[in-house]
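Researcher: Next sequence.
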Amino acid sequence: MTTWHVRAEWRKIALRPLTLLLFTLTVGCVTTTFYAQDFWSDTVNAAQNGLRNIENGKSYRSCLELNPKLGPEYCTRTGESERQATEAWLADSRENAAEAARAQTVPGALGWAAQAFASFPGLVVLVLLAAQSMGGEYDNRTAANLLLADPRLRAHLWAKATALWLTTAAALCCAGAAVAAFALVKGRAEYPLHAFHLPPGEDLARGLRLWGGALAVTAVWSLIAVALTSLARGQAGGIARSGALLVLLMLGSGTTSLWAWLPGGIVADVMAFRPGDVLWNVWWGPESGSAVPLPLRALPTVLATGLGIWWIMRAAERGNEVT
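Model: Next structure:
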């Protein structure tokens, strides 16, 4: 694989209309940022006002006015139940508001976009682009020309996967910049979530971790999708195989102890997926919460992934010896 080869493949991918889907995720990132900050800032304020009304006796007096026959004892019991429910509501609202507030800083904006690209929507676009890029060579009968020019199929796979990953990285940077611009221009001013911002050093570390995790996940998935499409020797087969593998990746989240060791759970831990996050991981499982260190749990996945990629590429090369 040479730089010229990667540039040639990158020009092919960049000119495909389907590539616009990657950059369309930018609109999705900004939209979800807006709704998350708007909703959770309003929800926190409503929960705080509800708790304040309970503490200053306004809810108790309102209960007596509405239920004079039931008496103070009933309103006291009702008020205590209402207090517990409101405190739980406020705690949950604060937790979600803290997640939404992370997109109001530059590192947090990068992290917000990274979670989109390393989750289901981003990986689906990668599957489609990989199938169109490599599978189109077989469907259009240009694969033979590629292999006549250079019979090393592995070089073509690496070049196409690298070009696809570079395009994804560019789209990810654009999405992060767009979210950051929204946060600095509109989000901070209209949705006061400053109390939930992480300290600068911690915020930077988290943002870089998510951004690096997204680059790693999309790089691996670009290579897997391209190799599977070459093995299938067609766009439809590549989409079917990569899609089935993507679905398998998301299975197992219902069993916490098992999910922590599965590839999907490792991705969820790396990308800090939470239950109920806006849009991106509603199909995915949340963080495992395992006490076992992530590097130790990730080691089997890394080894299995490496062996799987090696096997797929070897099988694809054997299948393309005669074209």
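Model: The mean pLDDT is 82. Residues 153-190 form the longest helix (38 residues).
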